[in-house]
Amino acid sequence: MSPAVKNTEPDLNISFQDYLVLSKLVFDWADSYDAKDWDRLRSIIAPTLTVDYTKIGLKRWDDMPANEYMAMVTHPGFLGDATIKTQHLLGQTWWERISDTEVIGHHQLRAAHQVYTDVDLQEVKLRGHSHATNEHYYQKIDGVWKFAGLKPNVRWNELKFEEVFKGLD
Which residues bind substrate (predicted)? Predict the structure, then answer.
């Protein structure tokens, strides 16, 4: 008799209802970034988030409070810059069930960025786009699914992506 083989396949068993809710949640994440709809983003995030930017040269925060995440995302050196327009276009997704209250979304992502010379948004200064896969973390809190963090894995950037953001102070 051969020894038992441990199953290393991810658990893909989420309910259809969770699938629909999680799909809307990732859409709201992307669209709130693009619309700079910070109230909407704030409404979908967990009280603490895991933000892993190690693959893009920054650091990992395991328990970033929601207010710090919002401060980072809305910072004028990041997405809060009124001269930057974005579109976070989602490709294919698959869902990995960790537990009844935790799911990881694996998302293909193309993030287009266009920077204008000023807030009138009339003259384009530069463009830069990123092609990546993202792990997004989701937690069910008090019966409601929330966005609980991300870990991007950039495949490549194009044009002048490195010049898009001014940086976080």
Answer: 33, 53, 134
Q: Is 129 a catalytic residue?
A: no
The length of the chain, given as a count of residues: 169
Q: Tell me the β-bridge partners of 3.
A: none
Q: Is 53 annotated as a binding residue?
A: yes
Write the pLDDT tens digit of every residue in 68-80. Answer: 999 999 999 999 9
Q: Is 113 a residue of the active site? A: yes
> Has 33 been labeled as part of a binding site?
yes
pLDDT for position 98: 97
All structural domains of the chain: 16-163 (3.10.450.50)
138 annotated to a ligand binding site: no
Q: What does the alpha-carbon distance between residue 108 and residue 129 come to, in Å, rounded to a whole number?
A: 14
Query: Which of 107, 113, 129, 136 does the annotation list as catalytic?
Result: 113
How far are the Cα atoms of 56, 81, 122, 130, 161 from residue 157, in angstroms, in the given order?
Answer: 11, 20, 24, 4, 6
Instruction: Output the average pLDDT for the chain.
Output: 94
